[in-house]
């Protein structure tokens, strides 16, 4: 069943003069119990896509085209009051920096309890308390009875992120949006949080959208991967398809900039240049200027989504019938499976 | 003149929380940095990497220990006074967060030329602005950035400005405290390449502090692993990554995500939070150039 479906969504932010288009014509769907990863550089509109889905766009932002369906219902033009009912119960969000997401003046326990009480007004104090302990146990905080009376500053980065997850899970959301949940954390803690995300997702059968800029992070948890560039999804497919058979030159570039691919070489591979500003987008494919495989048509016309397999799509002219055949530059030994 | 540019011996720094409790941020750390070498220091947050960097820059006064920079004891007040200009120009530091380490109210050209002004160094290229423009080119930015403020630049560009500022006095030792931690993967690669290029060009030494082990593997000649204020393993990059000896290093290496879904999912990870590693003992040379923290007379340290 499609839990969440986004169709041709476009978002604009700003006034008359400088309109930023952080999301341009984005379509994807999210199935029950699935982890979809959205990967891209900072400023490519990943966070804005999440925010537009749960209706947290800034005041100057608005959805200009397309629609969002939550469990089959069109929620594109829901009012704030209607959205409030969905947030927490249908979807909730985990933010990047756990320290700013938590209130420094309240104990962890009371912050989790608050999230429960919003959706379950009839719960008694004892029931809420029991649920708080349950949630803390679920996200792997040990000795919840003592720890619930501690403040965020008593917690380490990993523990804070666990607390934020407990708050997000307070009323059993069906869709969890995690916006760079591990960027502020150490490698070892990051590994733990990712495993926890996967475990929770399997246990509660929630669907998850994981936003990240690191393909390495995504490999462990994602079922499907969407690569985003300048507000558009340029490649989407199952994790295996995107990792083992990437088609878009931007995906190639992202993979090659990981140090693992340059082992034994003198230089790391880089994508030349900077991502374009979303205010003045160039004509044609936004990636053309940084693309070493760019064709003439890339500067003229934006490529449509080409279908590769039933689940794998990429937007690059290289997939057109008339394009020259270019081998994927990533070579890897496939001694697995 | 010795081949080591920096010799650190038994450096210890405590932070006092109150009268009774103090935190050992850096605990009996000894290592050397050779000339023209990139030494990586890795460890989780709270392992004392940044405190160590700040001690090396005279920002903190350590409780005990000795640091010799080109043979000068930097914590000896008399020696410091006599060589102040030398010490301040030949060591430079680059901080993690370029947004807060660059003055928001200064233009790039002023930021880059400031070390020259402070140290009263005659510019080789005529004016401070010419000098700034030269350094900008070095780090891969064009002259249009001279007049910009830090807020008008992206994170990667700001970090380049910070590097350019560190290079104006042509230092022999550059200390980089997590210079790529706040950047995107693709921009990280650009900055790492820049470090490598600059090092080859100038031949200075770099102490590169990071928590990202894969970047360190690529850039550094030798790597020291820090845990709870102590160096638990110190070895050539190749030897450390191929044959980690200390259990903490092994766990740290296993936590690096691999961009390969099948391999990555097969990996069984230990529970990092529960393991406590022993920090007793002394660094002992197990193989040539490969040091591991070892207990008195015993084998390599085991998990508690």
Main attributes?
heterodimer; A: 337 residues; alpha/beta; Rossmann fold; B: alpha/beta; eight-stranded mixed sheet; disordered C terminus; ABC_transporter-like_ATP-bd (chain A)
Overall description:
The complex is a heterodimer of chains A (337) and B (304). In chain A, 30% of the residues lie in helices and 21% in strands. Chain A is built from eleven helices and twelve strands. In chain A, strands 6-7-8-3-9-10-12-11 form an eight-stranded mixed β-sheet, with helices on both faces. In chain A, a hairpin with a 6-residue loop joins β1 (2-13) and β2. Mean pLDDT of chain A is 87; it is low at 333-337. Chain B contains twelve helices and twelve strands. In chain B, α5 (108-118) packs across α6 and α6 (128-138) crosses α7. Chain B is α/β, with parallel strands linked by helices. Chain B has one domain (4-294): Rossmann fold, CATH 3.40.50.300. The termini of chain B are far apart. The chains are: A alpha/beta (337), B alpha/beta (304). At the A-B interface, α8, α9, α10 and α11 of A face α7, α8, α9 and α12 of B. Chain B: GO terms for molecular function: ATP binding; ATP hydrolysis activity. Chain B: Residues 6-253 form the ABC transporter domain.
């Amino acid at each position: 069943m499609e839990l969440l479906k986004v169709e041709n969504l476009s978002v604009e932010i700003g006034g008359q003069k400088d309109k930023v288009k952080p999301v341009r014509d984005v379509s994807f769907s999210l199935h029950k119990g699935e982890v979809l990863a959205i990967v891209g550089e900072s400023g490519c509109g990943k966070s804005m896509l999440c925010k537009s889905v749960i209706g947290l766009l800034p005041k100057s932002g608005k959805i200009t085209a397309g629609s969002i369906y939550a469990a089959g219902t069109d929620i594109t033009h829901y009012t704030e009051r209607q959205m409030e009912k969905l947030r927490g119960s249908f979807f909730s969000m985990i933010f990047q920096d756990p320290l700013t997401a938590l209130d420094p003046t309240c104990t962890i326990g009371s912050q989790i309890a608050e999230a429960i009480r919003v959706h379950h007004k009839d719960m008694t104090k004892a029931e809420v308390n029991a649920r708080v302990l349950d949630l803390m146990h679920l996200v792997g905080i040990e000795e919840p009875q003592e720890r619930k009376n501690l403040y965020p500053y008593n917690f380490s980065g990993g523990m804070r992120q666990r607390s934020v997850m407990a708050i997000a899970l307070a009323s059993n959301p069906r869709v969890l949006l995690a916006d760079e949940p591990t960027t502020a954390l150490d490698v070892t803690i990051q590994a733990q949080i990712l495993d926890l995300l996967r475990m929770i997702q399997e246990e509660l059968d929630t669907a998850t959208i994981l936003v990240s800029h690191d393909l390495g992070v995504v490999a462990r948890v994602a079922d499907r991967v969407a690569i985003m560039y300048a507000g558009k999804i340029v490649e989407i497919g199952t994790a295996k398809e995107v990792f083992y058979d990437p088609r878009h030159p931007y995906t190639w570039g992202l993979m090659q900039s990981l140090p693992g691919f340059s082992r034994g070489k003198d230089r790391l591979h880089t994508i030349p240049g900077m991502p374009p500003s979303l205010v003045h987008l160039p004509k044609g494919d936004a990636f053309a200027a940084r693309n070493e495989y760019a064709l003439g048509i890339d500067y003229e016309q934006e490529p449509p989504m080409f279908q590769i397999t039933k689940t794998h799509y990429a937007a690059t002219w290289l997939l057109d019938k008339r394009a020259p055949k270019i081998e994927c530059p990533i070579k890897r030994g496939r001694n697995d499976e | 003149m010795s081949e080591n540019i920096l010799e650190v011996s038994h450096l210890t720094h405590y932070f006092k929380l109150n009268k009774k409790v103090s935190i050992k941020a850096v605990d009996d750390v000894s290592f050397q940095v050779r000339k023209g070498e990139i030494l990586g220091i890795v460890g989780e947050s709270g392992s004392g990497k940044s405190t160590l960097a700040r001690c090396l820059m005279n920002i903190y006064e350590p409780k005990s220990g000795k640091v010799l920079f080109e043979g000068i004891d930097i914590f000896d007040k008399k020696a410091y006074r006599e060589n102040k200009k030398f010490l301040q120009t030949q060591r430079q530091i680059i901080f993690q967060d370029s947004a807060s380490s660059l003055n928001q109210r200064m233009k790039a050209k002023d930021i880059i030329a400031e070390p020259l002004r402070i140290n009263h160094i005659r510019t080789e290229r005529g004016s401070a602005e010419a000098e700034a423009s030269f350094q900008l080119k070095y780090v891969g930015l064009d002259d249009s950035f001279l007049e910009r403020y830090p807020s008008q630049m992206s994170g990667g560009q700001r970090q380049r400005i910070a590097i350019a500022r560190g290079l104006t006095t042509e230092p022999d030792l550059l200390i980089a405290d997590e210079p790529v931690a706040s950047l995107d993967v693709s921009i990280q690669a650009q900055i790492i390449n820049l470090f490598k290029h600059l090092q080859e060009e100038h031949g200075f030494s770099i102490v590169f502090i990071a928590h990202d082990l894969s970047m360190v593997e690529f850039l550094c000649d030798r790597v020291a692993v820090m845990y709870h204020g102590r160096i638990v393993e110190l070895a050539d990059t190749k030897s450390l990554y191929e044959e980690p000896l200390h259990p903490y290093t092994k766990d740290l290496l296993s936590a690096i995500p691999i961009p390969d879904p099948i391999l990555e999912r097969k990996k069984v990870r230990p529970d990092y939070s529960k393991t406590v590693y022993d920090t007793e003992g002394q660094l002992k040379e197990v193989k040539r150039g490969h040091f591991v923290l070892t207990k008195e007379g015993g084998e390599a340290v085991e998990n508690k």
